[in-house]
Every structure is written in structure tokens, then in C-alpha cells.
Amino acid sequence: MISKKNRLVGAILLVSGTTIGAAMLALPLTTGLAGFWPAILLMVGVWLFMMLTAFYLLEVNLRMKGESNIISMASKTLGRGGQIICWIIYLLLLYALISAYLVGCSEIVGDFFEPIIKMAYWGWPGLLFLLFALCIFFGTQLTDFLNRIFMVGLFGAFIVLISLGLGQVQPKLLMHRDWLHLLPSFSVVLTTFGYHIIIPTLTTYLEHDTKLLKRAIMIGSVIPLLLYILWQILVMGLMPIPKLVAVAASGQQISVALQQFLGSGFVVAAGRLFALCSIITSLLGVSLSLSDFLADGLKIEKQSWNKLWIVLLTFAPPLLFTLFFPRGFLFALKYAGIFVVILLVLLPAWMAYYERYGPETERTFIKSDFKVPGGKWAIVTTIVLAFIILAVEIIK
Questions:
Q1: List of domains in the chain
Q2: Is the Cα dihedral 260, 266, 267, 273 positive or negative?
Q3: 305: closest CA among 166, 119, 118, 137?
Q4: pTM of the prediction?
Q5: d(Cα 153, Cα 164) in Å, to the nearest integer?
Q6: Which residues have CB under 8 Å from 369's CB, separation 6+?
Q7: Distance in angstroms (rounded) separating the CA atoms of residues 17 and 111
Q8: CA 20 to 30 Å from 47, out of 14, 24, 196, 368?
Q9: CA-based diameter of the chain, in Å?
């Protein structure tokens, strides 16, 4: 048996791994025009806001019986309509993410092994499908173990990138400020803190231990925030605004652009390793979350060969779309910001409101010692902000 303390470490790394994605490498390109300090203020604000909505989700989850995922939570609190919305948004977002991660991971692995092993265009996605399917089939403990390994690789690659460049940062480049350019980057920053989907899985993994779950969310989400800040310092402190704009417009990899400033071939290698590890850790977290969501929503017990159906439902649709209709999920990814606002901001606050203030006759929840502070006004304010953000995302 794995001790709770050991599981807490794994839970923290699962939150961090689910949060950190390869898109982090391009974060300075998105926020670059606004400048370093506006970007940092935005990231800290979004981190706090998303942690609040994560705690709303945790509060509702802790008051549900058994291994309840978001679909059961939505059904019990928001009724049939909330359940349908949750099904649609959750599947669109997570299938799109898994599809994109399979493509990204296949490209990196294919580039690395192509001189040695020749494969058809479907070979690498198919092989990765089998590997990740086995991880999900054998459950959270194996996923936790593999996530730890790739998180070590992620941290190692990041340390190399930072150690090569921090000494050459020019403080004057960090003084640029243009607050008007913050709005276009808001949705991107919002999606970089989308770890909420792993919370129901961790609630089961940590046996509904409120103290450990709070620690896992707080520590697990602050690690990506610190990495993001260091990465912003490195890139914005080395590359002038015109260069950031040119790199963003050309689609050039940020690690390749940094090599021109640092003059080291290790930068590209470290950047590629970081991208690979961040994609794999995100894929592990997202696919584990989706498999638990499907098991809960379809009422499939995770026993014996029933798990095979869960694995196929988790990976088969994104694999097929990756191979035959890649533009379908790439199109869905364009609306990731809208999906994230609905699923990870609006729904958690709305469910928490119902769980606390809904009709007494329908609020048959189990007891829990955890309640997010702030009362009704904090929840209402969160819901109003969610609608405002949603309106901005739809209009822009």
C-alpha cells in the first residue's frame, strides 16, 4: 500500500503535470506586448481566481458519495440541463486536448526516432495510443508513477533552460508596460491553469482527505505559477518586443529563437525535452480525468475487463480524429477558452451555489468539513465574472 504522504506527493505532481503544457513555452509570445509586470499581475490574478473555482469544485465533490466525477456533480446540483451541458463541453474540450497532445507528442517522438525507425504516418500516434491506454487501464497508481518520472525530466530540462539564460537577462527589457494588450492574452493565461479536471480523481486517490486535497491543489498549482514567472523573466529579459512579435508571427519555436541569443545548442535540446515531458504529463492527467469522467457518467464499474471499454472510449475517438479528421479537433481547440470558462469557472461556482443554497428538499449531500470562505456574495461574484469573461471570449 502506498502511504498517504507518498500519495500526496503524487497528487501534487499530477496537478502540476496536468497544468503545465507545451503551450507554456509560447506564453511569453502571447503576453509579450503587454510587458513583464502586467503579465505577472495577470498570471497571479488568474492563478488565485482559478484556485477559488477549484475549491468550489472540491467542496461539491467532497459532499458526493463514492467516486463521483463532474457529471454526477452536475446532475445532482444543476439537473438534466446542467448534466447535458457538462457532457458536451467536457467531451469537446478533453477530446480536443488529447487529440492535440497525441499529435504533438507523435511529432516530437517521430523527429527523434525517424533516423532509426521508419514508420507510416499513423505509426507513432498508434504506438502512443497503446502506451497511454495501458497506463489508464492499470489505474491511478501507475499513472502517478510515470507522471513522476516525466516531471523529473520536465524540471531537469527547465533547469537547463533557466541556468543557461538567467545570467544574461537584461532588466531594462522587463520594464516595458502596455496594459491594453493584456486582454487578448487573458484566455490563454486562463487555460494554462486548467487543472480542475483532475480533482475528482484525486479526491478518490487521497481517500477524501480534505487537508491533503487542499495541499495538493495549492502546492500543485503554485509550482506551475513559479515556473511561468521564471520563464517569462528569461524570455522577456532576453528578447526585445520586436523580436517576440516576429517569432510569434513566424511560428518559430521559442527554443530555436533563444539559441540565437544564448549561442548554445543545449537550448534547443532542452526545449524539445521540456515540450515532450510537458505534453506527456498533461496527456496523462487529461486522459486519467476523462476515463474517470466516462466511468462515472456511463456508470461503468472500473473492474476487470470493464476498464477496457473505458480505455477505448477515452482514446479511440481522439485517435481516429487525429488520423482522419485532424482539423475537427484543431477547430475545437480554438474555442478552448470558452470551454474552460464554462467547465472550470462557471459550473463549479454554480454547483457550489446550489449545494449550499438550493431547495432544502433536494440538497441530500453527505457531510463535509470543507467550505470555501466568502459566502453567497463570493459565489455570485464568481458567476457574474464567469459570464463577463464568457461574453468577451465569444465577442472577440
A1: 4-395 (1.20.1740.10)
A2: positive
A3: 137
A4: 0.88
A5: 17
A6: 210
A7: 23
A8: 368
A9: 68
